[in-house]
Structure of Quaternary amine transport ATP-binding protein:
Amino acid sequence: MITLDKLTKIFDTPNGSITAADHISMEVPTGEICVLLGPSGCGKTTTLKMVNRIIPATSGRVLIHGEDTSQMNTVDLRRNIGYVIQQIGLFPNMTIEDNISVVPKLLGWSAEKYKKRALELLDLVALDPAIFLKRYPSELSGGQQQRVGVIRALAADPKVMLMDEPFGAIDPINREVIQDEFLKMQKELQKTILFVSHDIDEAVKMGDKIAIFREGKLEQYAAPDDLLAHPANDFIAGFVGNDRTLKRLQLVTAGEVMQQNPSMVTLDQPLDEALQLMESRDLEAVTVVNREQKPIGMVRREIAQVHRGSCRDHHDGLPTVIYQDDDLRSVVSRLYRVDASWLPVVDGEGYLQGVITQRGITHHVGATYRTQA
């Protein structure tokens, strides 16, 4: 969808020429989020602004669906590209409905069409139209205003979105909520997005690809897991942090790592059957499920070795369960919090799907490095 071909920007200053972006070449596939990342002054925002000609390029090209943006007229360019910045810029004298409708009105949409669009977009970011449609920006919190800023950029259904640190001014708790809502929205809309950030954690969470800049040059362009596992040089390694292996945990879900076809017993099974199962599979414990195949406890090997009777009489409760969609970062946190080496994994309705172990997580994370060796 987006191709940057040797894109370069040189600023003339009283102290001489400064190369803010130096022959940047990369491709962003349709429907993906590419995060431009790097320290202040590295060229990421300059590169972003050259895409929609807020800053003219010194040389090189920007192509959208193969079309050179320098050959587009301004109206077509603005229609195809939505733009979101940290300083939201909502018009204070307009209602939220009118703010969202600014571009559709300029494009000649009918009142029925742009009003319907405003309703749809407010729903999309969990802002009740009945409450927010006729409010003014001053009546919204900072986080709510930022959501409106995002959907205003989506109002005319652009092919491409440019986002310049859109959540940077929001407090950490609300930022995470808005990031999650935006990713849910992106799953449905599949926009092609260039997203500027200075935060590696945000980049890993939001990006399908990450482009790291330094002093106007593109140092590495890769998927988050590849970037964290294989930094191209010492600068990249230092920038992403010494905990980069731990950052990889948020890129993988429990469902991807769990052991399927888990060992389990029912409440009415004899303890000696549970012991046989654990001995045959070298397990220290086995999951107890009810008639619906939902985990309700565990039988420990050490208990089954010294007692007789049924699993009903000798099982322990589960401290917690893991959901298939939980990322490994939260899984590890829960394992440590309840001092467990394994936990059952369930689907959204609570049915047992597998088990996840500390050893399995370690094996998964280390597989990349074993392959490299």
About this structure: The chain has two domains: 2-249, 254-367. The first helix runs from residue 44 to 51. The longest strand covers residues 16-28. Residues 2-249 form a domain with the Rossmann fold fold (CATH 3.40.50.300).
